[in-house]
Write a structure and sequence with these properties.
alpha+beta, 19% helix
Amino acid sequence: MPKDDNAARPEFKPMNIHDRRTTVMHPDNAWHLSHWYEAPAEDPAVPEVYTYTDAISYAPGHEVRFHSSSTAPRWTLQVWRDGLKPTLAHEAKDIAGEFHAMPKAAYRDGCAWPVSHRWTLPADIASGFYRVVSTCDLGNGSQFVQHHFFVVTPTDSKPAKNRFLLILPTSTWLAYNDWGGANYYDGIDGATGKQFSPVLSIERPWTRGLVWLPPGAPRLCDTPKRRPLEAPRYPTKEWAFTNGFAQYYASAGWAQFDRHFAVWAEREGYDFDIITQTDLHYRPGILSRYGTGVIVGHDEYWTREMRDTVDAFVEAGGKMARFAGNFLWQIRFENDGRQQVCYKARAFEEDPVRNTANKHLLTCGWEDPAVAHPGATTFGVNGMRGVYASWGGFAPRGSRGFTVYRPKHWAFDHTDTHYGDILGEDAGIFAYEVDGLDYTFRQGLPYPTHEDGAPQGVEILAMGPAVYVEDEYAGEGFRYYLRDSGLANKAKRLSGSTSPEALQKHRYGSGMIVSMPRGKGEVFTAGSCEWVMGLARNEFYTEQVTRNVLNRFLGD
C-alpha cells in the first residue's frame, strides 16, 4: 500500500485563521486574549479545499457523501484507515474544484455545501477510524492539507469474545470544534458576536488539530514543573497560534487522545471495533453485542440516552473500562444528530426545555439539582468533584501520577505496586482534567462519602488532588488562562450560594482510579484524560494496569 501521508506529505500552514484577539489589562495584572478560529479564506487567489461528510459514521455497504468547497481548480481526496499501520482505503484524484461560501452561522447550522464526491463502502470494509485528507497544490511546491474523518461501524452480530468495542467521545470533540467561528467555549454567536454557541452542527469541517497532529505537538501538561516564582506557560496556545492550529486542539480529539490508545491496543494484539457516541445514542444495540466497552481520553459531554445504554449494558453483565476524564455535562441531539445542544451555565435562563415536561433533559451538569443524575452512578466518579491538575496554575508542581492506596486490588496485579506509590508519574498521566468523588479518610484509606450520589460498592484504589481554580501568584507579566473557571456558578448550583464559605467548599477536588460492581457487570475507571500518555510513552505501571483491566474484562 502507499506510504501513510502522515509521514510522506509536508503540512502547509494555512493563513485562513480568523484572529479576534483583544488585550485587556485587568486590575490584577492578568491578561485576557479572546479566541481565534479557522474558516475559509474565500479568496480566489488562495488555493484551498475544505471537506466534510454527511454523517459521522457509516455501516459497510453504505454510501459516503463528501461535501466540499475549493478555490483550487483541481484537488485530491484520500481516505486512510488510521491506526498502528495506516492504510489507504480510497483515493480520488483530479476532482474539479468548486467554490461555495461558508454560511455566516456554519458552526450552528452547517455549511450546506453540495456533494463533491461519493464512495460506496465495500461490504467487507473493517470497522475503524477513517481519516479523510483533502489536498490541493499551492503552486510553490507545497500543498494545502485539510483533515476530516468518519467511522465505519461493525456489523458482526456475534463478535468474538475477546473483542472489545471502543466508543469514541465524539460529542466532546464537537464541543471543542470551533471551525467557522464558535464552539461551547468561545465564539462569534449572540447579539454581540462574542458568545459561545449552545447549538453546534456536525455538518462542517473539523478544526485543524482535532483529527491530525504532527509528531511533537505539545500537550497541555508537557512542560517541566515550574521553578519558584517563574511565570506560568501554556505551550499549546503558543504553538497553536504560531503554527496555525486550532486554539483548542489540545483539549479533545482523535489526534490528541484516542489515537494513542488505538495504536497501543493494536500493538499489544487486542482486537476491537469502533463506534461514535452518536452510534451509542441512536444504535444502542451495537454495544449489547459485546462483552466489554472501552472509553478513553476526554469524554466531557453525554446524552441521557448514551448513559442509559451504558447502564443497561453493565446491569446485564457487561464490563465497562473507562480510561478518561471530565464526565460533566448533559447534552441533547437534535435533527437526527446533525446538531448538538448544550447551554451549560446559561441553561437556566435559555435552554428551551427548562420549564417543560422535558426539564430533566436540561443541558447542565449531571450533579446539578435541576437534573440530579450523578455521574458516579454510571462510572463511579464525576467531573464536578474533580477537574484540573498539573498545568498552568492548577497544582503545577503536583505529582502527575495517582497515589496508590489499595495495592492488593486485582488492577495492580504483576506491578509490584505498594501503598503510597505514585503510579504513572513518569508519563504524567494525572493531568489536564480528572474525575473524582467527595471522600474521607479512615485509618489511612480513602472512602466515598456518598454525598455526591456515588453508589455503594465504589472502591477508591488510587487518587490525587485536583483544583477548580488556578492559584494565581501575582508576578509582573504573569497571565493565567482559565482563572476561576466557573467556580461561582458551581457553588451557586450545588450549594445555592456564592458566599466565601460556599466558594471554599467547592474549590478543591480529586482525581481517582475506582472499581465498582453494578448489577451483573463491572465498571473500572481511571479518571484522567492523560492516562493515554502512559500507554504512548510505554510507562510500565500504566500499561500493566490497562492490560489487567482489559484481560479480566475480556475473560483471559
